[in-house]
Amino acid sequence: MKPDTPPRSLLFIPAGEERKLAKALGSGADLIILDLEDSVAPDAKPAARDLAKGFLADHAGLARRPLLYVRVNALDSGLTADDISVILQQKPDGIMLPKANSGADTARLAAMLDAGERAAGLPQGGIGIIVIATETPAAVLNIATFAGSTPRLRGMTWGAEDLGTAIGATTSRDEAGDFTAPFMLARNLCLFGANAAGVQAIDGVLADFRDAAGLEREAKAAARDGFTGKLAIHPAQVAAINAAFTPSAEEVAQAQAVVDAFAAQGNAGVIAIGGRMLDKPHLERARRLLTRAR
């Protein structure tokens, strides 16, 4: 994928598991996240960094490949600088920052990337950032501060597990499998925060990778609400996520008809199509859909 193309599916792969890394490129995911954080035991992190570096060295230069990001350890872990110093040498497409408390944390990471790029002789600003924006209570309350925090910001996503631990929740889902109110609040604030920041809104994971029906339902609901991608924790989830965030031929045709109708009427403020009155928000929505389809 091109670095400026919003990915539909973002697949976590433990950076310390060489067998899973080898299979990642064939998963169909638009973006692969080499995970140095939660999926790697503390004493295994140095080896995982080296595996991630080797994977990037082998694959970052390929002409046709998924986007390659690395989830580093959280800033308060004391490990972030070590993560960046190792992996930056192979120029990943981006860094995923977990457990950010506010836009100040993304700005801090951006400053670290600035220094790392200068030291490595890399073009300034080429490495993007996706932030997990709801893993702490402070982050939920500070969601608006991510807007304008750094030009490197490419996307915002959300997570329920760490947030649940932080607030003392016994579960994040109800008996029907739907998120409970505190976690729906975090999800929805992430959607608004990402759009306020002008970056991609990415839905969180469904931890039960065997629940195909639940994944399809959740991904379709996310696409309906305005998210344009979703995190995956298993390759089996990728196809359903890609399908949910790929506009259908009918949707593309309808959107193109809206764009054409506005153009035919001199981009008027309001037009009528099939008995419906459409205005500028409808035109913008149609343009966004066509961009996603391309």
Q: What is the 3D form?
A: globular
Q: Under CATH, the topology of the largest domain is which?
A: TIM Barrel
Count of DSSP strands:
10
| First and last CA, distance | 12 Å
Helix content: 40-55%
CATH homologous superfamily title of the largest domain: Phosphoenolpyruvate-binding domains
Helices, by number, come to 11
Into which percentage range does the β-strand content fall? 15-25%
Estimated radius of gyration: 20 Å
* CATH architecture group name of the largest domain: Alpha-Beta Barrel
Q: Which residues form runs of ≥5 with pLDDT under 50?
A: none
Write a brief structural summary.
The protein is of the alpha/beta class. It folds into 2 domains: 9-246, TIM Barrel (Alpha-Beta Barrel), CATH 3.20.20; 250-293, no CATH class. It is built from 11 helices and 10 strands.
Give the tags.
294 residues, alpha/beta, TIM Barrel, 8-stranded parallel β-barrel, two-stranded antiparallel sheet, 10 strands, globular
Describe the structure.
With 294 residues, the chain is an alpha/beta fold. It folds into 2 domains: 9-246, TIM Barrel, CATH 3.20.20.60; 250-293, no CATH class. It is 44% helix and 16% strand. The protein contains 11 helices and 10 strands. The protein has helices at residues 18-24, 45-59, 80-87, 103-120, 137-141, 161-167, 181-197, 212-225, 238-244, 249-264, 280-293, and strands at residues 9-14, 31-35, 67-71, 94-97, 128-132, 153-157, 200-203, 229-232, 270-273, 276-279. The strands form 2 sheets. Strands 1-2-3-4-5-6-7-8 form an 8-stranded parallel barrel, surrounded by 6 helices. Strand 5 (128-132), helix 5 and strand 6 form a beta-alpha-beta unit. The longest helix has 18 residues, at 103-120. It is globular, with a radius of gyration of 20 Å. It starts with 8 loop residues before the first strand and ends with a helix. The model has no long low-confidence stretch (mean pLDDT 93).
